[in-house]
Specification:
four-stranded antiparallel sheet; DNA-binding; alpha+beta; N-terminal domain of MutM-like DNA repair proteins
Length: 278
DNA sequence: CAGTAGACTTGCCGCC
DNA sequence: GCCAGGCAAGTCTACT
């Protein structure tokens, strides 16, 4: 599910709620997701001050004031649900694997049917040396935004298709299958082009369109295909703004003439307009 | 090292 | 109506 815009939406919802608070109770309903849950998670984290909530690539990071960071990845189908404990009816389901009760009376649920998501605990000051953080590429929307020359140099070294390059988190952090296709359509670049064939001018346009599409998706609260929802239960709305993703056989929104093509690259669907995107 | 195929897992869509 | 098989927001591992 969650690519950068979805994780950012969740981060922005959790931040004002949890910073300065703590967890009173952490209930794990199974021993593992993708990886075993952190050992003694409740003992180690409960009643500890949450000092900072942030996002890096598709990872949520919860920093605790005693020096540990809870690394939270949502996998493909992970979802975060925020409910007020005073609400009349609280949701629960068979895939609610971890439930956090907060000091300000909220219930935070980690729901993940496919269990590709995970929670890991690691010392905050050593995060940068932990895989995958040590090889993660730059943030497209960071305080020090990814520069064109850096992206162009990284692409120059790769012979894989530009679509696959955009999915490589070591080149650029946070893009996934939806937004890679959408950004390439906006930039009028064929997903089949070799990454190393992009000219500097094309890389510049691509980077601008990546940033635009991510910003617009964040404003829309992300994209809901099936499992994803904003933490308040609303769907995301960016799926209504897709120009190519899941639009095979529908006419291109740019030329209004060519049906959108679906191809498979490295086992993943790619959608594009064969006429507009060169 | 670079690139690709397969693995993990559950559930939906819809073929026959 | 039933149900085979493909497909899905991600990323790690094993192999060439």
């Amino acid at each position: 599910m969650p690519e950068l815009p979805e994780v950012e939406t969740i981060c922005q919802a959790l931040k004002p709620l949890l910073e300065g608070q703590s967890f009173l109770k952490i209930q794990a309903n199974r021993p593992d997701l993708r990886y075993p849950l952190p050992v003694n998670m409740e003992t180690v984290l409960s009643h500890k001050l949450i000092s900072l909530i942030s996002r890096r690539a598709k990872y949520l990071l919860l920093d605790f004031s005693h020096g540990l960071t809870l690394i939270w990845h949502l996998g493909m189908s992970g979802r975060v649900i925020i409910e007020n404990l005073n609400a009349l009816s609280l949701n629960s389901g068979p895939h609610d694997h971890v439930v956090f009760i907060t000091s300000n009376n909220y219930k935070i649920t980690f729901r993940d049917p496919r269990r590709f998501g995970f929670l890991l605990l690691y010392p905050t000051n050593q995060l940068k040396s932990l895989h995958p953080f040590k090889t993660l590429g730059p943030e497209p929307l960071g305080d020090i935004p990814l520069g064109v020359s850096v992206l162009h140099a990284a692409l120059k070294r790769r012979t894989i298709s530009i679509k696959n390059a955009l999915l490589d988190q070591r080149i650029i952090a946070g893009l996934g299958n939806i937004y890679a296709s959408e950004a390439l359509w906006q930039a009028r670049l064929s997903p089949r082009r070799g990454a190393n064939t992009l000219r500097l001018k094309e890389t510049k346009i691509l980077l601008i369109e990546i940033q635009n599409v991510l910003r617009r998706a964040i404003s829309a609260g992300g994209s809901t295909l099936r499992d994803y929802a904003q933490p308040n239960g609303d769907t995301g709305y960016f799926q209504y703004s897709f120009n190519v993703y899941k639009r095979e056989h529908l006419l291109c929104n740019h030329c209004h003439f060519t049906p959108i093509t679906r191809i498979v690259q490295s086992g993943r669907a790619t959608y594009y307009c064969d006429k507009c995107q060169q």
